[in-house]
Amino acid sequence: MRGLFITLEGGDGAGKSTQIRNIEKFFEEKGMTVTHTREPGGTPIGEKLRSILLDPANTEMEAVTEMLIYAAARSQHVRETVLPALERGEVVICDRFVDSSIAYQAYGRNLGSMVAEVNGHATGGLRPDITIWLDIDPETGRARATRDSGPDRLESESTAFHTRVREGYASMAEAEPDRFKRVDASGSVEEIKDEIYKLLEDLCLVRGL
Ligand code: TMP
């Protein structure tokens, strides 16, 4: 039996972590086993690559290098964590997946179609059952984000970069409306949760869960 693969996307301050906890609750209440993981990361190797990727000191990192390290972390994550959990029939909730590379590296860094090609190898063709994009305009997101430490390497990028990232997500929502669902993240936590729960109920109906 194959489980369910759910991914969350969105910029800084969109409220991803809070909604991931709500999604976990949704499936746990149905008696399903949930694996919660993230990219970059989700494995010991991936977490090491994550700290290289996000370290603000790595100012010299080339765009292609960055894209390949994200893909390397993903390859390990898919094979070591995600596929085994799906094969056990679990619900895998992943904070970011390939669509982040399309948005940040293909659009944000202007790397174009090579990103999808490399990531086809990284994932072995694995696709999410549903992707929830918490859409917020970059300035609002930035103002909302609260953290103890300063911004990481990607968060420190310009508003123009984050606007290209958002355009990338918007074009994915247009190209794949069945999988890639935009949720307006400017509303309250409860409003966002209700919209996500509706999408999950629909998915469960289709999958007979
Ligand atoms: P996080 O802040 O959601 O933990 O994600 C880490 C940062 O890495 C975030 O700024 C988005 C970025 N990122 C990419 O640029 N490409 C990717 O493929 C992934 C997974 C994340």
What is the SS-derived class?
A: alpha/beta
Strand adjacency order, main sheet? 2-3-1-4-5
The small molecules bound here are: thymidine-5'-phosphate
Shape: globular
Tell me the number of strands.
5
Q: How big a fraction of the residues is strand?
A: 5-15%
The portion of residues assigned to helices is 40-55%
| Poorly predicted tracts of residues | none
Written description of the protein model:
There is one protein chain. The protein is built from 8 helices and 5 strands; from the N terminus they run βαβααβααβααβα. With 209 residues, the chain is of the alpha/beta class. A 5-stranded parallel beta sheet has the order 2-3-1-4-5, with helices on both faces. Helix 3 packs parallel to helix 5 (114-123) and helix 4 crosses helix 7. The structure holds thymidine-5'-phosphate (TMP). Residues 39-40, 54, 70, 95-96, 100-101, 104-105, 154-155 line the site of thymidine-5'-phosphate.
